[in-house]
Amino acid sequence: MNNNQIRNINIKVLFLGDTKVGKSSLINTYFGNEFDPYMYTSNTYDYFVKKITKEDKSYSFKIFGMPGSERYRNLIIPNLKQAKIIVLVFDMTNKQTFLELDLFLEVIHENLRNNKLNFILIGNKADLIENWKVKEEDGKKFSEILGGKFFLSSAKNQVGEFRDFLDGYFDEYIQANKDELENDNNNQQGILLNENRRRRANNGC
User: Fold this and answer.
1) CA 13 to CA 61: how far, in whole Å?
2) What whole-number distance in Å separates Cα of residue 85 and Cα of residue 128?
3) Which one-letter DSSP state was computed for residue 141?
4) Of 118, 12, 14, nearest in space to 66 by CA
5) Please, are residues 66 and 76 in contact by the beta-carbon 8 Å criterion?
6) Are 89 and 155 in contact (CB under 8 A)?
7) Do residues 132 and 97 touch, judged by C-beta distance below 8 A?
8) Strand partners, 46
9) 127-154 pLDDT, tens digit each
10) In this structure, which long-range contacts are made by residues 137-140, counting pairs with CB atoms below 8 Å and at least 24 apart in sequence?
């Protein structure tokens, strides 16, 4: 297949959760970087792209790891636009990070009332079993309420498992949403074309 014939379809993925739950570590290790126990707490967002090519289409999963501290949560709202997949991350050893997921859901529902979202719930730092403050069963129940999937992970010690899980999820998502993704992509191309025409008209071109 000639590369010029491959169509690109964008899928926006947001990682949300409290500060220090390990969002940046999960994303960085997923993309092959080594785990860094001294990774800084981000005040902006991480951004990576995962490409999956199937037949004549290239699916670009644009992954945004949003800051978790309350001070910077205002960055979440503009980035919710066109989001398709929400990955909620909490720390299995810190119950408050689990409880505060409701705050992130409030922001989502207030700003994306009509969007069809797919949820993943990640219980990170799951390798520290003796320090768990959240029951696995509670995570499963919460993910069922969201209509999503639940996965226990560790950015430090279970990188391969998380990578396999997310790759599998992305594959399933493509298969289940092929027609919708293509329609959305066509609509976005139409919007961009109209915007470009308006710019040219305003510039006298």
Assistant:
1) 7
2) 27
3) H
4) 14
5) yes
6) no
7) no
8) 65
9) 999 999 999 999 999 999 999 999 999 9
10) 138/98, 139/90, 139/98
